[in-house]
Amino acid sequence: MKDKDARSIILKALYERRAEPMSHFSDDAFPEIPYNEAMRICQDLEKYGMVNFLGEDTRGFFARIEPSGVDAIESDGESSPVALTPTVIQNFHITNSSNFQAGNSNSQEITNSVEKLISAINESQVNEADKEEAKSLLQKALSHPVTSAVLGGLASTIAWK
Fold it and tell me: Looking at the predicted structure, is the pLDDT value of residue 101 above 70?
Protein backbone atom coordinates (compact mmCIF):
# COMPACT_ATOMS: atom_id res chain seq x y z
CA MET A 1 0.00 0.00 0.00
CA LYS A 2 1.29 3.45 -0.89
CA ASP A 3 1.65 6.05 1.83
CA LYS A 4 -0.92 8.31 0.15
CA ASP A 5 -3.48 5.49 0.41
CA ALA A 6 -2.67 4.88 4.09
CA ARG A 7 -2.76 8.63 4.80
CA SER A 8 -6.21 8.82 3.23
CA ILE A 9 -7.54 5.88 5.24
CA ILE A 10 -6.23 7.23 8.55
CA LEU A 11 -7.28 10.80 7.86
CA LYS A 12 -10.78 9.67 6.86
CA ALA A 13 -11.07 7.64 10.08
CA LEU A 14 -10.06 10.69 12.11
CA TYR A 15 -12.44 12.86 10.09
CA GLU A 16 -15.34 10.53 10.93
CA ARG A 17 -14.47 10.95 14.63
CA ARG A 18 -13.79 14.69 14.48
CA ALA A 19 -16.45 15.48 17.12
CA GLU A 20 -14.48 13.49 19.69
CA PRO A 21 -11.76 15.32 21.68
CA MET A 22 -9.36 12.50 20.77
CA SER A 23 -9.60 9.17 19.01
CA HIS A 24 -8.04 5.92 20.14
CA PHE A 25 -6.88 3.43 17.52
CA SER A 26 -6.03 -0.09 18.64
CA ASP A 27 -3.49 -2.25 16.89
CA ASP A 28 -6.24 -3.77 14.72
CA ALA A 29 -8.04 -0.52 13.85
CA PHE A 30 -6.76 -0.56 10.27
CA PRO A 31 -6.72 -4.15 9.01
CA GLU A 32 -5.09 -3.12 5.73
CA ILE A 33 -2.30 -1.16 7.46
CA PRO A 34 0.18 -2.72 9.92
CA TYR A 35 -0.02 -0.99 13.31
CA ASN A 36 3.52 0.48 13.22
CA GLU A 37 2.86 1.86 9.72
CA ALA A 38 -0.45 3.40 10.84
CA MET A 39 1.28 5.08 13.75
CA ARG A 40 4.13 6.31 11.50
CA ILE A 41 1.64 7.70 8.97
CA CYS A 42 -0.25 9.47 11.75
CA GLN A 43 3.00 11.02 12.99
CA ASP A 44 3.82 12.09 9.41
CA LEU A 45 0.42 13.75 9.11
CA GLU A 46 1.23 15.64 12.31
CA LYS A 47 4.34 17.11 10.62
CA TYR A 48 2.02 18.60 7.98
CA GLY A 49 -0.29 20.04 10.66
CA MET A 50 -3.16 17.78 9.64
CA VAL A 51 -3.24 15.60 12.77
CA ASN A 52 -2.35 16.01 16.41
CA PHE A 53 -0.65 12.76 17.44
CA LEU A 54 -1.37 12.48 21.15
CA GLY A 55 0.75 9.46 22.02
CA GLU A 56 0.59 5.75 22.52
CA ASP A 57 -0.39 3.39 25.32
CA THR A 58 -0.38 -0.40 25.61
CA ARG A 59 -3.67 -0.65 23.69
CA GLY A 60 -2.92 1.65 20.74
CA PHE A 61 -2.39 5.30 19.87
CA PHE A 62 -4.36 8.53 20.27
CA ALA A 63 -4.82 11.24 17.67
CA ARG A 64 -7.10 14.09 16.65
CA ILE A 65 -7.71 15.63 13.24
CA GLU A 66 -6.74 19.28 12.88
CA PRO A 67 -8.58 21.90 10.78
CA SER A 68 -6.18 21.49 7.85
CA GLY A 69 -6.89 17.74 7.90
CA VAL A 70 -10.62 18.43 7.80
CA ASP A 71 -10.07 20.82 4.89
CA ALA A 72 -8.02 18.19 3.05
CA ILE A 73 -10.79 15.60 3.39
CA GLU A 74 -13.59 18.01 2.51
CA SER A 75 -11.71 19.28 -0.55
CA ASP A 76 -11.01 15.69 -1.62
CA GLY A 77 -7.28 16.20 -1.11
CA GLU A 78 -6.97 19.37 -3.19
CA SER A 79 -5.99 21.54 -0.22
CA SER A 80 -3.68 18.90 1.25
CA PRO A 81 0.02 19.70 1.58
CA VAL A 82 0.74 15.98 1.01
CA ALA A 83 -0.64 13.49 -1.53
CA LEU A 84 -3.87 11.71 -0.63
CA THR A 85 -5.95 9.19 -2.55
CA PRO A 86 -9.08 10.99 -3.77
CA THR A 87 -12.41 9.78 -2.49
CA VAL A 88 -14.85 8.65 -5.12
CA ILE A 89 -18.34 9.79 -4.22
CA GLN A 90 -21.29 9.31 -6.49
CA ASN A 91 -24.52 11.11 -5.77
CA PHE A 92 -27.74 9.99 -7.35
CA HIS A 93 -31.01 11.88 -7.37
CA ILE A 94 -33.89 9.64 -8.40
CA THR A 95 -37.44 10.85 -8.70
CA ASN A 96 -40.54 9.13 -10.04
CA SER A 97 -38.56 6.10 -11.14
CA SER A 98 -39.21 2.39 -11.09
CA ASN A 99 -36.87 -0.51 -11.70
CA PHE A 100 -33.90 1.54 -10.49
CA GLN A 101 -30.77 -0.30 -9.38
CA ALA A 102 -27.68 1.28 -7.87
CA GLY A 103 -24.42 -0.58 -7.82
CA ASN A 104 -23.03 -3.33 -9.98
CA SER A 105 -25.78 -4.30 -12.38
CA ASN A 106 -24.22 -7.61 -13.42
CA SER A 107 -25.92 -9.65 -10.67
CA GLN A 108 -29.33 -8.18 -11.34
CA GLU A 109 -28.95 -8.59 -15.10
CA ILE A 110 -28.07 -12.28 -14.74
CA THR A 111 -31.04 -12.85 -12.43
CA ASN A 112 -33.37 -10.97 -14.79
CA SER A 113 -32.07 -12.92 -17.80
CA VAL A 114 -32.64 -16.29 -16.16
CA GLU A 115 -36.10 -15.24 -14.95
CA LYS A 116 -36.95 -14.12 -18.52
CA LEU A 117 -35.76 -17.50 -19.76
CA ILE A 118 -38.05 -19.25 -17.25
CA SER A 119 -40.97 -17.04 -18.36
CA ALA A 120 -40.23 -17.88 -22.00
CA ILE A 121 -40.24 -21.59 -21.15
CA ASN A 122 -43.56 -21.19 -19.34
CA GLU A 123 -45.08 -19.33 -22.30
CA SER A 124 -43.76 -21.74 -24.93
CA GLN A 125 -46.18 -23.78 -27.00
CA VAL A 126 -45.10 -27.18 -25.65
CA ASN A 127 -46.72 -29.58 -23.20
CA GLU A 128 -46.34 -29.12 -19.44
CA ALA A 129 -44.03 -32.13 -19.09
CA ASP A 130 -41.53 -30.60 -21.55
CA LYS A 131 -41.73 -27.22 -19.78
CA GLU A 132 -41.02 -28.83 -16.40
CA GLU A 133 -38.16 -30.87 -17.87
CA ALA A 134 -36.59 -27.74 -19.43
CA LYS A 135 -36.85 -25.81 -16.15
CA SER A 136 -35.49 -28.78 -14.22
CA LEU A 137 -32.48 -29.03 -16.54
CA LEU A 138 -31.88 -25.27 -16.27
CA GLN A 139 -32.08 -25.44 -12.50
CA LYS A 140 -29.70 -28.42 -12.47
CA ALA A 141 -27.23 -26.56 -14.71
CA LEU A 142 -27.36 -23.44 -12.51
CA SER A 143 -26.92 -25.55 -9.37
CA HIS A 144 -23.78 -27.25 -10.67
CA PRO A 145 -20.71 -26.29 -8.54
CA VAL A 146 -18.87 -24.78 -11.52
CA THR A 147 -21.87 -22.71 -12.60
CA SER A 148 -22.49 -21.62 -9.00
CA ALA A 149 -18.86 -20.55 -8.65
CA VAL A 150 -19.02 -18.53 -11.86
CA LEU A 151 -22.34 -16.89 -11.02
CA GLY A 152 -21.48 -16.33 -7.37
CA GLY A 153 -24.46 -18.20 -5.93
CA LEU A 154 -27.06 -16.27 -7.91
CA ALA A 155 -28.90 -19.46 -8.82
CA SER A 156 -30.28 -19.63 -5.29
CA THR A 157 -31.96 -16.22 -5.75
CA ILE A 158 -33.80 -17.15 -8.95
CA ALA A 159 -37.59 -17.35 -8.65
CA TRP A 160 -38.41 -20.78 -10.05
CA LYS A 161 -41.97 -20.33 -11.30
Answer: no
